[in-house]
Specification:
91 residues, alpha+beta
C-alpha cells in the first residue's frame, strides 16, 4: 500500500502542507464550495492501469454520496482524511 501512496503523490503532483489542510481545498461534488476533509482514492480498471489512483476530495456532507457512487461501480479503493495524504517526496 505504501508504494501506491507514493505513486499517488507523484501522480497528483504532490501534496503540500497547505493542501493537506481541509480549508485549502474544496469538495469535488458539483456546485459544492465547502472545505474538503476527505480524499476518495479510486480507479476505473477499464482505463487505469497499475497502481494509478484518481482522487476526489469531499466535505463531510458529500462523503457518503460520493463514496456510494464509486462503490456502486466498484471503483472506490480507499478513503482517507486529507491530513493522511503524503506530501510529495515523503517515503
Amino acid at each position: 500500500m505504501q508504494s501506491n501512496m507514493l505513486d499517488l503523490a507523484d501522480l497528483f503532483g504532490g501534496f503540500s502542507q497547505a493542501a493537506q489542510e481541509s480549508s485549502a481545498v474544496i469538495c469535488s461534488r458539483a456546485g459544492c464550495t465547502a472545505p474538503a476533509q476527505w480524499a476518495l482514492l479510486w480507479v476505473n480498471p477499464k482505463i487505469h492501469t497499475g497502481n494509478r489512483r484518481k482522487i476526489w476530495l469531499c466535505c463531510e456532507a458529500h462523503l457518503a454520496y460520493l463514496s456510494d457512487f464509486l462503490t456502486a461501480r466498484q471503483f472506490l479503493k480507499q478513503t482517507l482524511p486529507i491530513a493522511e495524504l503524503p506530501p510529495r517526496g515523503r517515503a
